[in-house]
Amino acid sequence: MYKKCICPSLQRTPSHMKTFRQFIRHIATTKLYIDGKFVESKATDWIDLHNPATNEVVTRVPKATPAEMESAVASAKKAYETWSKTSIITRQQVLFRLQNIIKANMKQLAENITEEQGKTLADAEGDVLRGLQVVEQCCSIPTIMQGETLAGVAKDMDIHSYRVPLGVTAGITPFNFPAMIPLWMFPVAIACGNTHVIKPSERDPGACMMLVDMLTQAGCPPGVVNVIHGAHDAVNFICDHPDIRAISFVGSDQAGKYIYERGAKNGKRVQSNMGAKNHGVIMSDANRSNTLNQLVGAAFGAAGQRCMALSTVIFVGEAVEWLPELKKRAEALKVSAGNVPGTDLGPVISPQAKERILSLIQSGVDEGATLLLDGRNLKVIIKFCNL
Questions:
Q1: Which of 80, 142, 228, 362 is deepest in the core (most CB within 10 A)?
Q2: How many other β-carbons are positioned within 10 Å of the β-carbon of residue 137?
Q3: Of these residues, 7, 138, 208, 307, which one is catalytic?
Q4: H or E stretch covering 197
């Protein structure tokens, strides 16, 4: 069996690469999830998904065909006829069971996230945990879904409000939180009586696929949640399809604005959470040790690939004197593959992402910035071997 091992001192050899090339010919493909079943795509266009730490091909992700995407929506539309009439208590019980199944499989989910996305195992478990908290919130849906009655607000006037499902909804998720963000979407949608079609990031769809399978194990009927894969064409399909009533998106500014505009033009409700970065101002009376610890975690957690990452900090007054200590703490971070014990900083998602980061650092130097700590030439060596 072909396996990988980490070695700090050896690089890949030509013989290792030959074995690797032979291996990837037999790599598994990521399936679609339609009507409660994993479905092998008939796509002719595929995306190779690489482990960010090793650059090995983990799986191949299909760009779903138009017929396959239509099938997913048709399944969701059919399931809506009965799911929307299912009692809120029944939906709640499905979510209770999903909660327990996710808890029992957190490590397996985290391992998949680390392999496909690159983040450390500890960070990956946090990814799952944050999503699980949304599932737990949805377990209180009978209370959340209550309408309102106001009697006698005026002469001969009462007010009654009702909460009713919309129909088929859709989600489009980014690469940086492969479990948490899908769990922001489909549990809320189905708890409210909607059905859902989700397109996870083509860079790391594995966690989402595991989660929808867990949902079926929890007793959710076929078709309530379906998964399609792809890139631009899949996004356009979701924005344009007349049976999809609402879209939830998390991702970059450019994509978010595009989806909001295109979806809204087609009469859909669109929730678009776009990119952002935090900025910090550090005053000299702040707690020094606690502040520096928080800065390191905020700047380098998830390799900085999150909207709440702290990318800019201004030190005011005497706080400027803390910079050497901040540098020392950054130097102490262990950089390696996310599954290596003790790793503090894993790889970014792709070589292209790394090149963009390097170009940003160089632009700062070119504009006159002082580079206190240059990590651009850091080498993390991976060895492949037959075991």
A1: 228
A2: 14
A3: 307
A4: strand 195-199
Question: Given this structure, which CATH class describes domain 32-149+157-273?
Answer: alpha beta
Confidence of residue 381 (pLDDT cuts 50, 70, 90): confident
**CA pseudo-torsion sign 54, 229, 36, 83:** positive
Q: What tens digit of pLDDT does each residue of 281-293 get?
A: 999 999 999 999 9
**284 close to 317: Cβ distance less than 8 angstroms:** yes
- 307 is an active site residue: yes
What is the third-level CATH fold of 279-367? Aldehyde Dehydrogenase; Chain A, domain 2 (3.40.309)
* CATH 3.40.605.10 location in the chain: 32-149+157-273
> Is the whole-model pTM more than 0.85?
yes
Report whether 344 contacts 335 (CB < 8 A).
yes
Tokens representing residue 346 in the block: 């894993």
153 pLDDT band (50/70/90 cuts)?
confident
Start-end of CATH 3.40.309.10 domains in the chain: 279-367
